[in-house]
Design a protein that fits this description.
This protein has two helices and twelve strands. By secondary structure, the chain is an alpha+beta fold.
């Protein structure tokens, strides 16, 4: 005649699955809190795949500047790309982006310049200068990545260019949030609270399961 030990919470795979799912939820929430924000694209038409500058604003000298769609493999990425070639003065392409003050953003884009002089290219994220090139040498397309903070709810991403005898090619413009130093929103705080409560309850159940319960004969 044997004995079976049972705890007040029950036993079997059902309890194990409940504990595993609760722990997974808590760990996921902690990961979200650690990362600060979900990485999601916030630039509109960054690859110019609409075939135009929709989402952007052209200002200054925008002569000899447009979007072309030669398709792969001729475009820097995807099917379309932007080209700029104002002569004698500077043109600007910009987009106002909704941002969160205190958040760091990753800004990236694909660039190709023709070795012609005089020419120039610069990029800004708000007041942060990302890059400044004077008479850039011809080269294969390059991917540039930068990190810069937002200090307001709206940030301007702008590109300034001039190429008197050639063109500057731009494609795959991207801005994604990578870290937030601001106070979490109420919904995030509530989710964090629920997850911490789940962690406490899970630990308590594990502790109870390790204690002897009632003994029944079989």
């Amino acid at each position: 005649m044997g004995h079976r030990v049972q705890n007040q919470w029950g036993s079997g795979p059902g309890v194990g699955r409940w504990i595993a799912r609760t722990g997974a939820l808590a760990l996921f929430t902690l990961a979200v809190l650690h990362s600060g924000l979900v990485r999601s694209e916030i630039v509109l038409n960054g690859g110019f795949e609409n075939g135009d500058f929709s989402g952007f604003t052209l200002s200054g000298d925008n002569s000899n500047s447009n979007v072309e769609c030669p398709g792969a493999p001729f475009a820097l990425q995807g099917k379309c790309q932007a080209f700029f070639g104002p002569e004698g003065s500077i043109g600007t392409l910009s987009q106002s982006i909704s941002t969160l003050a205190g958040t760091t953003y990753e800004i990236s884009f694909q660039l190709k310049a023709v070795d012609e002089s005089p020419s120039s290219f610069s990029a800004f994220f708000g007041s942060s200068l990302l890059i400044s090139l004077i008479n850039p040498s011809a080269s294969a397309s390059q991917r540039f990545n930068f990190f810069a903070p937002a200090i307001d709810s709206t940030t301007s991403l702008s590109f300034n260019f001039r190429d008197d005898f050639g063109f500057i090619l731009l494609d795959a413009v991207s801005v994604v949030p990578v870290r937030s130093t601001s106070i979490p929103e109420p919904g995030t705080i509530a989710l964090i609270g629920i997850s911490f409560a789940a962690l406490v309850l899970t630990r308590r159940r594990l502790s109870e399961c390790s204690k002897p319960g009632s003994i029944s004969s079989s």
